[in-house]
């Protein structure tokens, strides 16, 4: 595929279609459709174990599913993870080898150091350090900022706010609002108010493994048992 096509800010579109995931008798996802356009933040909410991480991994291509169709600009892509210029993924669990220096990780991803430190000046002092010498919250912040400032056209973020202090969550939201001018973002997090705050569209996963688009978030989130 011609990556320059995918890089068009007007045409860039990520679609996950007909996603079906079952483990034995346990149906997790059923005929899911999610679309993310460049310039958009799409939020995904749902109860624990309802398949949010699975859906992101299926889109990225690292989790097999009974059925899946993932398309970029309408063209089917099998292994999206092989296209780092197209997509970057923040998994739920830490993914950076601990022995690497933070500055080397940024170089590896081609991430924009100036943009990262403009939002988080305190990251500057972490660059000469080994990743595993950072605190848990610092590690999560580095990982999230790394993915957001990468040149990829789409970002999948699985719990970007977890472990991050509220002050930094607010700054992360500012960074997301800035980088979305150049990319499409699909994110899930249990900090649902922050997700609602920054998302252009929000879906919630239901017990049947389907997505429902939120139009009256508070009420619908109660209806699906996400809120009391
Ligand atoms: N290898 C596996 N075998 C069987 N079931 C699995 C496997 N991997 C995941 N599951 C099940 O798939 C379901 C979806 O898990 P997933 O981690 O995607 O949920 P989630 O919505 O991200 O949850 P959380 O909000 O707790 O992070 C869970 O019920 C989980 O137990």
Automatic annotation (TrEMBL):
Keywords linked to the UniProt accession: Amino-acid transport, ATP-binding, Nucleotide-binding, Transport
The superkingdom of the source organism is Bacteria
InterPro entries reported for this sequence: ABC_transporter-like_ATP-bd, BCAA_Transport_ATP-bd_LivF, P-loop_NTPase
Which molecular-function annotation in GO is an example for this chain?
A: ATP binding
Keyword Transport assigned:
yes
Q: Name one GO biological process term.
A: L-amino acid transport
Q: Where does the ABC transporter domain start and stop, copy by copy? A: 14-227
* UniProt keyword Amino-acid biosynthesis, yes or no: no
Q: Which family does it belong to?
A: Belongs to the ABC transporter superfamily.
User: What PANTHER family does UniProt report for this protein, alphabetically?
Assistant: HIGH-AFFINITY BRANCHED-CHAIN AMINO ACID TRANSPORT ATP-BINDING PROTEIN LIVF
Question: What protein does this entry describe?
Answer: ATP-binding cassette domain-containing protein
Originating species: Fibrisoma montanum
């Amino acid at each position: 595929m011609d990556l320059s096509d995918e890089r068009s800010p007007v045409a860039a579109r990520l679609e996950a279609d007909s996603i079906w995931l079952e483990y034995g008798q346990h149906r997790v996802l059923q005929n899911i459709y999610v679309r993310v356009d460049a310039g958009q933040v799409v939020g995904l909410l749902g109860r624990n174990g309802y398949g949010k991480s699975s859906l992101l991994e299926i889109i990225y291509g690292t989790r097999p599913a009974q059925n899946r169709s993932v398309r970029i600009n309408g063209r089917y892509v099998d292994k999206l993870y092989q296209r780092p210029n197209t997509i970057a993924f923040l998994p739920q669990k830490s993914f950076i080898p601990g022995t690497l220096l933070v500055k080397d990780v940024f170089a590896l991803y081609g991430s924009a150091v100036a943009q990262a430190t403009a939002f988080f000046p305190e990251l500057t002092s972490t660059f000469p350090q080994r990743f595993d010498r950072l605190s848990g919250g610092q590690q999560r912040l580095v990982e999230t900022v790394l993915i957001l400032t990468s040149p990829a056209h789409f970002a999948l973020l699985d719990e970007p706010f977890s472990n991050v202090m509220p002050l930094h969550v607010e700054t992360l939201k500012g960074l997301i609002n800035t980088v979305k001018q150049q990319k499409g973002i699909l994110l899930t997090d249990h900090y649902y108010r922050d997700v609602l705050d920054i998302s252009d569209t929000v879906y919630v996963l239901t017990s049947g493994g389907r997505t429902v688009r939120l139009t009256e978030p508070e009420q619908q989130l109660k209806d699906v048992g996400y809120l009391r």
